[in-house]
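User: Could you check the structure of this?
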Amino acid sequence: EVRLVESGGGVVQPGGSLTLSCAASGFPLSNYDMTWARQAPGKGPEWISAMDINNTTYYANSVRGRFTISRDNAKNTLYLQLNTLKPEDTGLYYCTRLSGGMGTPDDYWGQGTQVIVST
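Assistant: Sure, the predicted structure tokens are below.
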């Protein structure tokens, strides 16, 4: 059974940092392109970052230079390092597995982990 389980969210002050994890099971993470997305309260989903199987990384303009995606294939875990957080980064963060290469639909996603950036 394919599962993606996110963790690491929390409440942080503006300018703070968090590290999110996405533990994958049921498939080898190294064989798939993966993404992170978020959904802010009252808004639709927003793609924020991706990493392909060659470890090439992609970022939305809103997070480039502040967030870093990475993976540990030995732990079968995807990460997202969030730095210099802003109130507008508040939302539910979740990881997804792409069904094929970049640009293909997600076929699995996790339940998400909540990030709140507030004073």
